[in-house]
Task: inverse folding
């Protein structure tokens, strides 16, 4: 299934904190990031990809049009998704994450706005956020890659469509060349070196 | 569900891609073609018949072993958006730290070059090549002047780098608070605790349990001086507990937790304990040897890895390790080794002198290993020329140093890696090879085993990474275990300025090679292979401290603490591990 990047505008993160942000000693444990799609009509969200930076839990709310005439409503589509199994340690702290529409609590049709609610309960980290946020919608149905001829003959078994796709992928990789090394470390028989390079 | 299935297909595609370039693939193809002549292969059911033929002739097993080997070595494919550096090391600050550490090493090597006016690499004149070829089997008799050479770095230099490792996003306040690490390592990596390491639910599948229960208390181990660990009492207590609770429930978390050292449990037979002279061999040893022979006959890597968790009989160890590491000496492998030998003879590298110096300083002075000096040169010199080692840098946080052919600085077509395998040896590097010389006598097989051990385990001991088996995690695991289970000892040592890691670091970096007696070391390395992880090194280091705790509580300086822990050659590894994991009273 292909996907298409949706151009979005990511607003700066807003810390949710009780009391005055400037004078208070503690660090905020909740951040909210708003994502708008200024030039795109309400679309069906397929995938969200981002790079985590010390966020422990993620909730996502979307502004969704349920039908043509009613105003858009905010719906929670992901609640407390765990990014760091132990918020005090580094596990999962800088990982790349993908969230798909089948993991969401509601259907993702006709989205006009996105709100990411980031939580980091541990006071050990100076800051936390998510980076390189990318939103994808469903791409055109037919893939643009050309498959080998034998694929046009249907596989005579009861495999579901998904398994057939996976098998096709495996076959394609198999058809490509190997990357075995020859083992030469010199250049045309010459390996006279002076100094190591720092770059 | 969708995600897991597509992950699986990605892993399959990756493994297929890797195996396509291997020897096994062409052998399988040849076998498949040859099998067409067999009467049982019919055209209508060609695919099934050939698959059946592979199963019967043992080729399927070889393929299974190859796939298992790939799964053990290579990390799972990462997120498609993740750049290659992310696979090497996900944490940015660790990558940076590794980068600056490497720069220091390069500077050190370059300054050695310029001071001594020796090129990094040069082609040997023909006369010198002939001479080296004649002397190949006795390079140890050579006494070159190495006084001006010094090792590029020693483990203690590396320790200083690790001590100064800081996460910029972490609260590193000066004032003491709950967030301060009391040990030397100040990065908050996730490390396991004893319940995760040890066993809460023991698998009571061993018939030996019943027999052991009926046995009287064992003769006191002569090494055990202190009365602090009443081994017999606690052992029986735990045996009873293990028997009944183990039979009643199996902790489901442990079944998934591959890292747990369940098989080291007190009620499970171990080589290193249950093969000692006081224990009748019918109880455990004979059966264990029999199972080992069966595993070897089956030629199943996964079964061998599971089997070796209880230790390997000395007679079977060489073959078992080769099976687990998926090394079979084919003619092509011998040829490859000969090619590396030719490379050594043709080109002279500065790294060679470093290797000579290291061997002379460490292995040659060791009572157990000095006899293998010639083997060490033959393996390490060839190792430096082996470009196939470069592929492990995909998942190693380190990067191979680069250089340019003389006169072609900056031109990418003349960029090469130096040394060809990208690994610069440090002080003590030859100790990784030395214990293997007890197992393998044929140079090309010894070489293959060492290379595989290096790209699976040893590289993690001298590069900065967040991997659970990386040296940083091992150090943190050691310090955490000591603090949690021996807080008085830890506090005392800290107060006298003898941070425990300063003493145990050199043991872990060398995987205890040169510190333990060889038979004990090999039993330890059995478990490293069996559990596919180096965490056991940190556990053993903590266990050694626990064992000598009484003496350590009386010392008043770092030097005195070092003296207490200077000689580990009398220690028995398995009892120490069992006591620490399963019998320490908190």
Result:
């Amino acid at each position: 299934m292909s996907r298409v990047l949706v151009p979005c505008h990511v607003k700066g993160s807003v810390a949710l904190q009780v009391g005055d942000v400037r004078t208070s000693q503690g660090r905020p444990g909740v951040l909210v990031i708003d994502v708008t799609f200024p030039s795109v009509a309400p679309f069906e969200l397929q995938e969200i990809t981002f790079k985590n930076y010390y966020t422990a839990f993620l909730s996502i709310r979307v502004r969704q049009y349920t039908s043509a005439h009613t105003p858009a409503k905010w719906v929670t589509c992901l609640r407390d998704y765990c990014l760091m199994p132990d918020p005090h340690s580094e596990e999962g702290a800088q990982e790349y994450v993908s969230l798909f529409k089948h993991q969401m609590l509601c259907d993702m049709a006709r989205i006009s706005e996105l709100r990411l609610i980031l939580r980091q309960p541990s006071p050990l980290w100076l800051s936390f956020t998510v980076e390189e946020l990318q939103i994808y919608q469903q791409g055109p149905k037919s893939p643009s890659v050309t498959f080998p001829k034998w694929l046009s003959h249907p596989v005579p078994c009861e495999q579901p469509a998904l398994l057939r796709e996976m098998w096709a992928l495996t076959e394609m990789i198999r058809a490509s060349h190997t990357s075995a090394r020859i083992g030469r470390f010199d250049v045309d028989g010459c390996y006279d070196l002076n100094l190591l390079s720092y770059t | 569900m969708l995600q897991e299935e597509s992950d699986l297909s990605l892993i399959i595609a990756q493994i297929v891609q890797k195996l396509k370039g291997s020897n096994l693939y062409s052998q399988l193809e040849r076998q498949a073609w040859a099998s067409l002549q067999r009467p049982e292969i019919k055209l209508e059911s060609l695919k099934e018949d050939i698959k059946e033929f592979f199963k019967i002739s043992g080729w399927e097993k070889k393929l299974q072993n190859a796939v298992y080997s790939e799964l053990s070595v290579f990390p799972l494919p990462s997120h498609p958006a993740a750049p290659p550096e992310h696979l090497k090391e996900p944490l940015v600050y660790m990558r940076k730290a590794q980068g600056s550490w490497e720069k220091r090493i390069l500077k050190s090597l370059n300054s050695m070059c310029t001071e001594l006016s020796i090129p990094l690499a040069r082609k040997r004149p023909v006369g010198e090549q002939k001479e080296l070829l004649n002397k190949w089997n006795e390079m140890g008799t050579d006494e070159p002047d190495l006084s001006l050479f010094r090792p590029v770095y020693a483990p203690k230099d590396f320790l200083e780098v690790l001590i100064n490792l800081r996460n910029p996003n972490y609260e590193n306040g000066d004032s003491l608070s709950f967030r301060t690490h009391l040990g030397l390592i100040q990065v908050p990596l996730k490390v396991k605790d004893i319940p995760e390491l040890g066993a809460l639910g023991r698998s009571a599948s061993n018939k030996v349990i019943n027999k052991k229960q009926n046995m009287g208390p064992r003769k006191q181990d002569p090494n055990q001086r202190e009365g602090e660990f009443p081994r017999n009492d606690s052992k029986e207590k735990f045996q009873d507990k293990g028997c009944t609770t183990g039979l009643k429930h199996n902790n489901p978390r442990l079944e998934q937790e591959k890292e747990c050292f369940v098989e080291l449990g007190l009620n499970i037979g171990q080589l290193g304990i249950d093969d000692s002279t006081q224990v009748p061999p019918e109880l455990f040893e004979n059966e264990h040897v029999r199972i080992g022979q069966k595993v070897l006959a089956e030629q199943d890597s996964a079964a061998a890895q599971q089997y070796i968790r209880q230790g390997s009989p000395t007679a079977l160890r060489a073959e078992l390790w080769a099976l687990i590491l998926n090394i079979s000496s084919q003619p092509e492998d011998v040829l490859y080794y000969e090619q590396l030998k030719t490379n050594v003879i043709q080109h002279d590298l500065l790294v060679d002198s470093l290797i000579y110096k290291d061997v002379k300083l460490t292995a040659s002075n060791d009572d157990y290993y000095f006899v293998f000096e010639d083997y060490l040169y033959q393996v390490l010199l060839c190792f430096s020329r082996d470009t196939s080692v470069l592929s492990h840098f995909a998942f190693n946080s380190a990067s191979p140093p680069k250089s340019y052919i003389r006169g072609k600085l900056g031109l990418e077509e003349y960029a090469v890696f130096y040394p060809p395998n990208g690994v610069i040896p440090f002080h003590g590097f030859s100790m990784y090879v030395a214990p293997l010389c007890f197992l393998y006598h044929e140079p090309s097989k010894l070489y293959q085993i060492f290379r595989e051990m290096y790209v699976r385990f040893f590289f993690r001991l001298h590069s900065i990474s967040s991997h659970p088996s990386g040296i940083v995690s091992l150090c943190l695991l050691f310090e955490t275990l000591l603090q949690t289970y021996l807080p008085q000892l830890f506090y005392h040592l800290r107060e006298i300025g003898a941070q425990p890691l300063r003493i145990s670091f050199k043991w872990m970096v060398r995987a205890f090679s040169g510190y333990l007696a060889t038979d004990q070391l090999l039993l330890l390395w059995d478990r490293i292979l069996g559990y596919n992880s180096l965490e056991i090194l940190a556990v053993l280091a903590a266990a050694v401290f626990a064992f000598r705790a009484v003496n350590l509580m009386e010392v008043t300086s770092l030097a005195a603490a070092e003296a207490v822990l200077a000689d580990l050659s009398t220690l028995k590894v398995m009892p120490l591990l069992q006591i620490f994991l399963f019998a320490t009273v908190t």
Observations:
- The longest strand of chain B covers residues 402-405.
- The longest helix of chain B spans residues 92-116.
- Chain B touches chain A through 70 residues (CB under 8 Å).
